[in-house]
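Cont'd.
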Amino acid sequence: MNREKSAIGVDLGGTKIELALVNNAGKIKKTLRRSTDAKGGSNAVQRQIVDAVRLLRQEDDQNIAGVGLGVAEQVVQDTGLVRFAPNLEWHDVALQTDLSETLGMPVKVVNDVRAATLGEWLFGAGRGCDDLICLFVGTGVGGGIVSGARMLSGTSNTAGEVGHITVDLHGPICTCGNQGCLEALAGGWAISRKARRAAATHPEAGAALIKMADHRIDAITAEIVARAYNAKDSLARRIIDGACEALIGGVVSMISMCNPNRIIMGGGVIEGLPELIGRVKQGVRLRALTAALESLQIVPAALGKEAGVIGAAALVLRESEGQ
Amino acid sequence: MNREKSAIGVDLGGTKIELALVNNAGKIKKTLRRSTDAKGGSNAVQRQIVDAVRLLRQEDDQNIAGVGLGVAEQVVQDTGLVRFAPNLEWHDVALQTDLSETLGMPVKVVNDVRAATLGEWLFGAGRGCDDLICLFVGTGVGGGIVSGARMLSGTSNTAGEVGHITVDLHGPICTCGNQGCLEALAGGWAISRKARRAAATHPEAGAALIKMADHRIDAITAEIVARAYNAKDSLARRIIDGACEALIGGVVSMISMCNPNRIIMGGGVIEGLPELIGRVKQGVRLRALTAALESLQIVPAALGKEAGVIGAAALVLRESEGQ
């Protein structure tokens, strides 16, 4: 008799949909990927999800507890209503109810970064830890907070927006409209914005970056800046130093607020520049409250891009087990 | 038969000890105050507390559940060990165990600002709210976080140190050693530091402040700056504007991290400048994430200086009721 429970985790992005069949030990048993039919609108995308889920269900239909789905931006807790997903141009899509009715099984929709935090907490770098913060530094900066063995959701399900803490009152404008957000200083888009502006103003200092971008300044990406940093280019060094300083300030704020036992750093920018973790550790030792430092570890994320599907599936598995 | 339960709340400070007999509706029935015998060391202070508690017990001995005691600085949860209380120059004082043995009743020692947060939450401006942050701006800046109807303690009981979030990476040095902490820009000590420095460098601009401090620059306090601000002195305006900007940045960070339903602002600086609450509200509307703003209220604290004793007593009453 097979007592192993599974769930299907879905990571719904603007360009692709990742699906995985995940067991209750957090192991991925099968994956699927689709290009998001964003132009088709929410009906088309829901059909894609339903078709893909049905394919995965054939693998292990008896033991699948349901579907967990992570999506960028705001999700209303409990109802799983997607209020606004800018990369899909969706407003008020009843994704959870619709999918659940069509599939005839439990569906749980959550914010994608909170799903990834759940994945790292239960099956990744946060295993066994009751107080942690995940800090994902990719194109944007997001995360999640676990405090006293519970994920914080806040009053309208937007807790954990660690990219939008103010670290520099007079810093650069953020996409959210505020100034000096952590994301506006350390997110991938901010790194490339800073590099492009610097290269345009000082083409000599930006020579290496411009060359690596095939002589198109507007093709300089955070990834290129990271490569130039690793090759010791001095403009890239300056830009990444600034991002690192902002990360230190942001992590210090997180520590002062939540006194976590572990801070887990992941995302594309960190994966491209893993030494940032060591630099943040060092900076935080100098800047954070002594009492909060004694019990603090700063560690790399363990699940990479799979954290999202694993966490989304885990959410459904936990609910099915009444946790 | 009197079924009303009470507890004794104690607020132990470096200069005075406030005690109150508090019932389980959060009402103060009797108060006592002692000047702290700080020079006598922890034994002398404990004797003071024991004597005062015994006096209060005579009021209602049958129904007193125990003693809750708030003290500045770090307290080890559960054991109530005071690790370090700089204003008393105490290190590793087993206050909870000692007092409990001497008094023969339950004693619970907590951080004083967390006690005040509990008071505001249960009986003050936070009544009925499951997600709130208290922000007390006095000489220092402190607070507490309630999320999902639970007070956050963190992994070593220092969560809620909202005065030490970084709001300005390149800002002034804080007493904690970091730069640009909220407290180093908006705390009473920071306001007076800034005013003294400005008055010393520009005596003309500082004329009003200097006069209000009886012509002694080093006697300029945050209270004097607040009075000068209310009298429209332009240097005082500039200084308070800076503090207000920092408060806005700090509150935005708190909102992004925890998505509270209510932010409760109190403490001496706020009491002296109540219009700061309106200014923070306005600034936050422009700077915080829209999704988190919809459900947000920013309100003044309701219990004033009594929040601490009420909260400390409430802690014991809750435990006695098994909450």
